[in-house]
Amino acid sequence: MSVPATQIQAGADEVIVASASIRRPVVVMIDEAVRRTIDITVCTLSLILLFPLFLALAIAIRMDSPGPVLFIQKRVGKNGVEFPFFKFRSMYIDSEQRRAALLVNNEASGPLFKMKQDPRITKVGRLIRRSSIDELPQLLNVLRGEMTLVGPRPALPSEVATYSPKERQRLIVTPGLTGLWQVSGRSDLSFDQAIHLDLDYIRRRSVLLDVQILAKTIPAVVAGRGAY
């Protein structure tokens, strides 16, 4: 499934990321080739080194609550194409059925749903979400080319369905494992603030900026800022 290109463009008063699409083709090709090389190298090494941790987490998740180790969900990627999004399962298996009853407690703005004390989260899940370890299986998404290390976070199809033309500009680049708003407060930010940071990233997107964001990601994860 994909979103028509005409829906991804902003209106005349919202051409925020136009500069990102008018760079010379050769520059764009080199930039993308370098980014993909970094993605493959970093993800391959990380998956090898983190395999013992993955195995320990799989055992802990299965012992903590019934259900699969991985949580797989449809997300929307570049140009509106949907893909299977991987995470370590951090909620009970009936979490989607219980979501409707919790909507009145939503602490997020826009189409997002966030609760600091979400009762659907398991004991192990709360720990791995706090440290963002639950996101590590997305290294597989990066290897598959569905995601990149740095970029806007991939949204749910139901969220994208409510996007304005301005917000749909997030879909012109490959979504990322981390990004500008992830190192700037994560869930503590409003939806509008997150969109602003994503569009700012797209406008200034470069390998150097990606490296800077990756360098800020580790301290942000260790501090647990906006993670819940």
From TrEMBL:
InterPro entries documented for this protein: Bact_transf
GO molecular function, one term: phosphotransferase activity, for other substituted phosphate groups
Superkingdom of source: Bacteria
Family assignment from sequence similarity: Belongs to the bacterial sugar transferase family.
Designated name of the protein: Multidrug MFS transporter
Organism: Capsulimonas corticalis
